[in-house]
Amino acid sequence: MKEITDVKEAGLAAIERSNDLNELTQVRNEYLSKKGLVASLMSGMKDLDASLRPAFGALINDCKEELEKALKQKQEALTLVALQEKMAKDWIDISLPATKFPVGNLHPLTLVQQEIEDIFRSMGYRVVEGPEVELDLYNFERANIPADHPARDMQDTFYVDSKWLLRTHTTAIQTRTLEKSADSLPIKVVCPGKVYRRDDDDATHSHQFTQIEGLVVGENITLADLKGTLQLLAKSMFGEQRIIRFRPSYFQFTEPSVEVDVSCHICNGKGCNVCKGSGWIEILGAGMVHPHVLDMAGIDGTKYTGFAFGLGVERVAMLKYGIDDIRHCYTNDARFLSLFKRFE
Ligand SMILES: [Zn+2]
Question: How far apart are CA 37 and CA 283, in angstroms?
């Protein structure tokens, strides 16, 4: 029994001496684990005379309880100390200015593309996309550009093989849409996307650029609808004062075809170096969808008509923001790109 009291006193002293939770765990293992000192005292009970066992047992239980109570108190005290130390160490000065992360902005081409998409969405158009690696069928054949047409010249087109190529215009999205929607007219879509041509890059030419084309097919669609639509586009993009004019032109996809000029937004039509003194700036190609194009897509050209138009996003961005070199659009100079923050 003297031994029990000694173990208890030693245990309480060891608990008191513990400086952190690790030390305390070691003390717990030493005294209270299955092979600890208290357990080994307990195992001595079987060697005792039966009359002594109750008092012995009571003493051991008391020893165990006191050690457990002391351990619990010490553990709480040490946990509190550890928390206070951590809080003291991790102290944050909330009055310091926060770390600033540089925030980017949208690319000028994205800004123009989104603006044009929004204008057409407000008129009920859907935005449709298509693959950049395209079949000859949709890029040329269905666009009414047969095998011997100069636009197919190796100088102009990046061919992947005899069937596949990098699309040279977003007209490929239109021919796909015509085929897909032949049984669910009317069609009213705009088709934005990157296109590729074998061009030597300079201030106004690029091997990769962005187009947006529009297509409307239905009953009683006329050139007047096209003109009204493009007039609204010109005013939305370049200001309420803008007017447009049509000049006769030729495209394979449309018949009749027109080039569309908008009155110069810099000089209001008086003549300046942007419009080369003419007062007009060419921004679009357009026309009525060629009946043969409708035929090839399985649409009855005697019942339905349609118009189509296409514009270069780079060209519009350059006019709108006064960009003097198309290469700025893809060389990703952060100083140039950051200029467009204010337009968002
Ligand atoms: Zn001008």
Answer: 94
